[in-house]
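sorry for the late reply, my laptop died twice this morning and i had to redo everyting from scratch. anyway the thing you sent over, i finally got around to it. pasting the sequence first so we're on the same page, its 496 residues, then the predicted structure underneath. double check i copied it right bc i was rushing
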Amino acid sequence: MTTNYTAEYLASLIHELCKLPQETEWVEFKENNQNPQDIGEYVSALSNSAALVGKAFGYLAWGVEDTTHALVGTNFKPHAAKVGNEELENWLLRLLTPKIHFRFLEAQIEGKAVVLLEIERAYRQPVQFGGVEFIRVGSYKKKLKEFQEKERALWRLFDKALFEDGIAVDHVQGDEVLRLLDYPAYFDLLNLPLPENKKAILHGLAGDNLIRVCEAGGWSITNLGAILFAKRLDDFSSLKRKAMRVIQYRGTNRVETIKEQDGSKGYANGFEELIGYINGLLPRNEVIGQALRKQLPLYPELAVRELVANALIHQDFFVSGAGPMIEIFTDRIEIGNPGAPLVATERFVDSPPRSRNEALASLMRRIGICEERGSGWDKVVSQTEIYQLPAPLAEATPDHTRVMLFAPRSLTQMDKADRIRAVYWHACLRYVSQQPTTNSSIRQRFGIEARNSATASRLIKEAIEAGSLVPYDQSAAPKLMRYLPHWAMPDRNPAG
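ok and here's the structure:
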């Protein structure tokens, strides 16, 4: 939804709502009821009911007579209202689970004061207020647990809910769509000719579900359209926290920040600018060769690009109040995103690709921001080996994923965990490339000279003892030994 509605739009929206039948589960009219508890329960009920009937938002309007829907005006001033010493909006938000987007809009219509509370629909679970879930039954507000069929219907709906299909802004005219979305970038990035008229442009955007026809008239901009092609993500209040945040620190901790910036554009139209900004912050090495000085990046640019794209594409957009973030330290880069990965971190190389945002991923692949399905982590591991860097580290919690790239570090400077991780990912990469891991390949990975093969043997032994690596055939001669990641060992004794 946009940050600022015009007075004309608000008047049009309220008039449309007033035309609705008396019993509408996603809209409630009040005159002057300012009871905070009642308002909070309505936020829960209208959010859940909007989801159930397929609406992007629920609405609570003050200044409208409940039975006739006539404009009568109100003395309710939401932005001045408090509960104790706490502002009403903050109090409501604190008691909502999960946190959803809502906002109070005030307008003068036909000389009468009207207040509209716009409430985002529930997505992944029913919205609670004060620990209780509410729903609308006809024109009445009820506890959801008392209506089990509606509760079951909601959960069936949530199981199918896709972020990309959600509505970022509803009921806007074509000119407003073109103001909010960077439509030239859409056609340019897909190598399509820019249509000559507005109707054809809108038709093209609708073809990729970036916008869709709105039942109330005009257009709705989908989350897919807004997150990929917003001119300014700040124009979409439900998505502005999803902008990529880049922070550069002085040193190896978060004590002192040098630079901090949030991305302003959509992921697709702003991607190259984002990558350029990140690369501009990353340190570079100066190499002198044959009278020429050349600046080389400390980190492989392809690896950085892949990890940034992965963080954008694979995040869980339903984790509220969090977005993707890149943190740059003197000895590492950390790239994180909300949501646990859909596959175990140790199986990033070999697992079939899975995405919780398939429509977004598909369009990003067509644009060329990510190329092959599931090949991103392979490229990251491969690039760190080419650059002779420590292996990347992937970590996951129930609601967050983080990947670290480390600055150059010699083998003698790596600790045991670094060494084992590097051997493991080397073996994974070799396995999916149909190549065995050997003493020779380990020497090549770490830049170990042939005469020091005993060093490579010690690295292999460490990985085997840690359970990361297994020998393919323990009876093979030492020079013929091959090794596999622990999960790739074939079954020697199949049943039957």
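The first strand starts at residue 27 and ends at 30.
thats about all i looked at so far, will dig more tmrw
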